[in-house]
Amino acid sequence: MNFEASAHHGDYSHKENVPPSSKTDAPHARRTRQRTVLGVLSENEQHSRSRSEASNIKHQSSLIILNLVSCPSSSSFDVYVEEACEVVLAASGQEVAQSDALQIEDMRLLLELSSTGSYQDASGHSEPESSLLSEGMFSMEYAKSIYQHLRENEVKFRAKPYLQRHPEITSDMRVILVDWLVEVAQEYRLHSETLHLAVNYLDRFLSCTAFMKRGKLQLVGTAALLIAAKYEEIDPPDLNEFVYVTDNTYTKKQLVQMEYAFLKILSFMMAAPTSNQFLRLYMSISSVCVKTENLAQYVAELSLLEIDPFQRYTPSMVAASAYCLAAYTVNQSLWPDSLKDFTGYTMAEIIPCLKDLHNLYMTADDRPQQAIANKYKSSKWCRVSLITPPAALPFQ
């Protein structure tokens, strides 16, 4: 598609000459969580309670799992159960581990694990041992370290104001470009994280260069999406497909040269923290219903359109604001204590960004660029872009 004419001729997704592509035949399926009704609890509270109960069960079983990490195979040691309910694992007649008193059920599980190598349920069907080390246990154990690492890196990977360095480029042109990138990402079923990374690469590249020509801006955006797809996707679109989406405005050679320029200028530093990463981390700490989750992703994606004011905020702050705005819209709640303790962000710190994000959400339907809104009208995203935003926030 010719980028300079895109503002006048509609969006890319309705082109009649779109060729068949294997990428479009294999969309990335997204599994939505089932919701249950627990009295008069809100949907977010239901998820938080269920997650807490599951965590307690996992904690009880984790004592056993940890005792098995350094053990040899079941054929090389014997298990003895003493009257004091102490479990002693012996290998070649030498004691290698001893735990405190365990529950009878825990000992039963330990015996089964040591003898079969996998857990057998009541029906006799065995499950892989890896299933015991669930994603929830792993993420909760390392979540704090992951968060601290992302907070440190979000400063290093942050773009600086750059429009004054490029006289031929305006903020409106950037909005049109990001809107087009959303359409291309949708056409090739790319992940939301790929889009967030592409916008990060785009802004960082422009903040490190100067005097970019208007006619090259779409080439820059295409190269950013190409690199992000290579970094994030299992099966990224081919180079020919990225050339095609520009209506062959640029050649493969030009695109490869721009990709090389990107990697050189950004020093191959591609692992940029995004608001999408922070948002998913927040929702793993304080679970929300599917509608709230999708709405938070929608408003966070809207923030990609505007460098002013959202370039002033870090991705972790934008994610916190998106979480609060979605939670308030769906369940009249804001920032839970669990996230306040986990992130260190207070509600007072979030409010400025939250107000700006709310204003953007309020005016989303009035914008000429509707790629993000159209994306989230799909049943895959629970049609959250059709939800009426709150007229005001509780502190306004």
From TrEMBL:
Keywords: Cell cycle, Cell division, Cyclin. Interacts with the CDK1 protein kinase to form a serine/threonine kinase holoenzyme complex also known as maturation promoting factor (MPF). The cyclin subunit imparts substrate specificity to the complex. It comes from Salarias fasciatus. CDD domains: CYCLIN_CCNA_rpt1. PANTHER family: CYCLINS. Essential for the control of the cell cycle at the G2/M (mitosis) transition. Gene3D superfamilies: Cyclin-like (1.10.472.10). The keyword Cell division applies. Residues 1-17 have a biased composition (Basic and acidic residues). Residues 179-264, 277-359 form the Cyclin-like domain. Residues 273-390 form the Cyclin C-terminal domain. It comes from the Eukaryota. Residues 1-55 are annotated as: Disordered. PROSITE patterns: CYCLINS. This is G2/mitotic-specific cyclin-B2. The gene is ccna1. Belongs to the cyclin family. Cyclin AB subfamily. One of its GO terms (biological process) is cell division. InterPro entries: Cyclin, Cyclin-like_dom, Cyclin-like_sf, Cyclin_C-dom, Cyclin_N, Cyclins_cyclin-box.
